[in-house]
Design goal:
Blueprint (H helix, E strand, L loop, with lengths): L5 E3 L3 E2 L10 E10 L1 H9 L6 H6 L4 E2 L4 E8 L5 E5 L8 E5 L2 H34 L10 H5 L2 H17 L6 E6 L2 E6 L2 E8 L2 E6 L4 E4 L2 H4 L3 H11 L19 H4 E11 L2 E11 L4 H17 L1 H5 L4 E2 L7 E5 L9 E2 L5 E2 L5
Parallel strand pairs: 3-5
Antiparallel strand pairs: 1-3, 2-7, 4-5, 5-6, 6-7, 8-9, 10-14, 10-17, 10-18, 11-12, 11-16, 13-14, 15-16
Helix pairs in contact: 3-5
Length: 347
């Protein structure tokens, strides 16, 4: 059975109200976003939205259903179902109350199906044992007779693999079975750094306008900026940084443990650095998806809030600065040389 969520909802074109009906929609992606971003998306569904832009390739319609993305308010839990039809706004949409509970229920149901498969295998094994002992007045069955059955063993391993993919406390575990043993391994973390351009501005009292600083000039404020980043991070972001807000159901969430923004001086210029802790190697598609997520965070999520923070420098000529990790003109990530693997973290 498919593990994609299916909902019967009406998708409105340029919606201004919502009513339930019997139209099939298949959720291709579940994307948690900050509550402030969710509120803006739901309040202005016909306005271009960067979160929709990043995920619009997953939205389409065919003869069987509308294939949508379910955006969920990370803390509040309601959802906004979107099929943009290739546009950057919610051309077809529906508000889904308690969407986070629906997604969680789907995960529980799938785990229940795995359990049912195991129960079926046990029942089949018991039937075989009883059939082989027909005619006996009484008999006993040992645990070993069940454990040694290959179908039951396969079901147990499949169930364990499903849990490692769906439960965050098992993130990073690998399972290998064979020769009567099951080996559990913890993928080690290594550091990957993404380099990106910055924009630093200050208020020019003479002209009354904002002035862009050169990155060479801004380099002397590196320590002030990194201190401001540390103070701006919310408590729930302290462990995993920007990955705290990534979709829990996406496998990439288990592969990339953390993503922390900072600034460094590279070639005498102030530069944005996003430090990742990664398990294994990222494929090209995974790196692309991660870059798109981080771009959205810097353009319209975490970065949008941070660039509004006034950073005091103690410099008489430039007492306050504002730092943006995103620039619409020339923004891109460059992967720096990867470092040596580090010991894996416990979840």
């Amino acid at each position: 059975m498919s593990n994609k969520i299916k909902l019967n909802v009406t998708m409105k074109c340029k919606a201004d109200s919502y009513r339930q009906a019997n139209n099939l929609c298949i959720v291709e992606e579940v994307v948690p976003i900050p509550d402030a971003d969710f509120l803006e998306m739901a309040t202005y569904p016909c306005r271009d939205n960067p979160h929709i832009t990043l995920h619009k390739d997953s939205m389409f319609a065919d003869s069987s259903a509308m294939h949508c993305v379910l955006f969920i308010a990370a803390k509040q839990g309601d959802g906004f179902l979107v099929e943009s039809e290739g546009y950057d706004y919610a051309r077809y949409s529906q508000y889904i109350s308690h969407a986070a509970d629906i997604v969680a229920g789907q995960a529980i149901r799938l785990n229940g199906e795995n359990k049912h498969t195991l129960e079926t295998a046990v029942a089949a094994r018991l039937n075989d044992i009883i059939e082989g002992m027909k005619g006996a007045s009484d008999f006993c069955v040992s645990y070993e007779q069940f454990v040694s059955d290959s179908k039951i063993a396969e079901c147990v391993i499949d169930c364990a693999k499903q849990l490692t993919q769906s439960r965050p406390e098992f993130a990073g575990l690998t399972i290998d079975s064979g020769n009567g043993f099951v080996e559990f391994g913890q993928a080690k973390l290594k550091t990957v750094r993404l380099i990106s351009p910055l924009r630093v501005t200050t208020y020019d009292q003479d002209s009354g306008n904002d002035e862009n600083l050169s990155m060479t000039h801004a380099a002397c404020y590196r320590h002030y900026i990194n201190s401001a980043i540390s103070e701006y991070m919310e408590d729930e972001e302290k462990e995993r940084g920007l990955m705290h807000w990534y979709g829990e159901t996406d496998p990439l969430n288990n592969k990339v443990y953390s993503a922390f923004p900072s600034v460094e001086v590279i070639d005498r210029k102030l530069t944005g650095v996003t430090t990742l802790r990664v398990r294994g190697e990222l494929t090209g598609e995974e790196q692309k998806a991660l870059n798109e997520y981080l771009t959205g965070q810097y353009a319209d999520g975490w970065g949008e809030g941070f660039e509004q923070q006034e950073i005091s420098t103690g410099d008489r000529d430039c007492p306050e600065i504002y730092v943006s990790f995103w620039n619409p003109d020339d923004f891109e990530f460059t992967v720096e040389d990867e470092q040596q693997p580090e010991q894996g973290l416990s979840m």
